[in-house]
Structures are given as structure tokens and as C-alpha cells.
Amino acid sequence: MNIPHSFYSKTKQQQRFFIFKIICLALLCFFISIVIAYATTLYFFPFIILPVIISIIAPFIDVPSLKATKKITYYAPLFIAEKEKNKRIKIHGGTFLDYCFTINKNSNARERTRFILYNYIEGLLKLVEELETNSKTQYIIQGTSYIINERTANKIGLKRTKQDGIQLLILLFNYPLLTLTYSITKTKLSFPNYRTVATYEGKVSDILVHKKSLLLLRDKLS
């Protein structure tokens, strides 16, 4: 399956112009919130809207910058890995930016879910294969998710571990943004369930044990 990412296929100038438009739109929304606040005497309203606006536009600014400085690496359009630190690599699902530029707008909820899962598996396989090639099979891969359950995680060599407090706080702060991406997946307004949030981790060597199963599942989803 060919997985295009139309944002990164743009020229640098086109990318910058798109980000500029996003920032202008965000400023307009904030200005409108100020006007509403004064018109309704709800002076706290802009202070509620501002964090939401920041969380929504942040991926369009931060992610391309982090990618350019190689602090993150895309192993699939919806699978990102942070730069290794102390033999530990943190992985993330796609951001709002990635969902906007890779999800087929004509696909239904089932097709979108399959596409997202394919990305996760494809990205994980590429990451562990790269680490295997570089003799880094003792490295630990860690991720926090509200989508993958413990049973599925165990099947691919990951085990539930102590909650990553920082990642949980990030997820809580980004709840409006997660709601947007979750709604894109479901093709309707949907709210992620934070009770299912869990942190999983595992050695690369443990994940490689399940490589054959991951390949079969990837091929099935494709």
C-alpha cells in the first residue's frame, strides 16, 4: 500500500505559506472570541478558547520543525518516533496535521480505522527492522495510547507499564485536538475515552518475536 503524505510533498515555500494561513486563521478565531466576550460580558471566554486554539494549531507548527531537525522520524504517515534517549524510543500516532493530509475524505469509518491500523503496524515494523539492522534490539519502545488495548499490545510484544504521567497530561491538554482526530476517524463527532489510556513498552527483541504475525496482519489490512 502506497501511503502518501501530501503536506511533505509540498515545497518548503508551500509548507510555510500553509502554516502562515493556519496562524492567521487562529488569530482571527481568537479576535472573534474577544469580540464575543465584550458583546456578552463573558470576559473569561477568550481564556477558554486560547488553549484550544493553541492545541489545534500546534501540530502544524511544531511537527514540521521537529521533523526538519530530526528530533522525530516518520516511519509511516501516522506513526512517529522520537529521537532515542537512554536506549528508549517513544512512539506516537499521527498528529492532527497528519490526519488532515493523509486520511481519504471519501472513505468511511471502517476504512479509516483499517488505514490507521495499517500505518501503526507498518511504522512499528520499519522502526524495529531499522533497530535490528543497527544491533539495537535491547532498546525499549514506549507509547501511550487510548486506542490499543492490553490484549492487542501483548500480541505484538508490548506490556502495560506504569502510566507515563507527562504523556497523560499532554493527552489531557490536547483533548479538544484528540476529539477532532477521533471524529475524523469515526466520520462523526466522537469523544475519546480517557479511561482506556495506558502506557505500553517492550524491547525491540520482544517485538521482533512477533514479526511474522505483524507482517500477516499488515498484509491483511492492506
Strand content: 5-15%
Poorly predicted segments:
none
The best one-word shape is globular
The count of DSSP E runs of length 2 or more, i.e. the number of strands, is 6
First-residue to last-residue Cα separation: 6 Å
Radius of gyration: 19 Å
Helical content class: 55-70%
Structural class, from secondary structure content? alpha+beta
Q: Sheet bearing the most strands, described?
A: 6 strands, mixed
Instruction: Spell the H/E element sequence.
Output: HHEEEHHEHEHHEHH
Count of discrete alpha- or pi-helical segments spanning 4 or more residues: 9
Q: How confident overall, as mean pLDDT?
A: 92
The side-by-side strand order for the widest beta sheet comes to 1-2-3-4-6-5
Keywords: Membrane, Transmembrane, Transmembrane helix
Transmembrane segments: 18-37, 43-61, 165-184
Tell me what the structure shows:
Keywords: Membrane, Transmembrane, Transmembrane helix. The chain crosses the membrane at residues 18-37, 43-61, 165-184. The longest helix has 29 residues, at 12-40. It contains nine helices and six strands. Strands 1-2-3-4-6-5 form a six-stranded mixed sheet. The protein has a domain at 71-221. 58% of the residues lie in helices and 14% in strands. It starts with 11 loop residues before the first helix and ends with a helix. The mean pLDDT is 92.
Offer a quick outline of the entry:
By secondary structure, the protein is α+β, with helices and mostly antiparallel strands. The chain is 58% helix and 14% strand.
Secondary-structure blueprint:
Layout: H1 12-40, H2 45-68, E1 72-76, E2 79-82, E3 88-93, H3 96-102, H4 109-133, E4 140-145, H5 150-155, E5 159-161, H6 165-173, H7 175-186, E6 198-203, H8 204-209, H9 211-221
Parallel strand pairs: 3-4
Antiparallel strand pairs: 1-2, 2-3, 4-6, 5-6
Helix pairs in contact: 1-2, 4-9
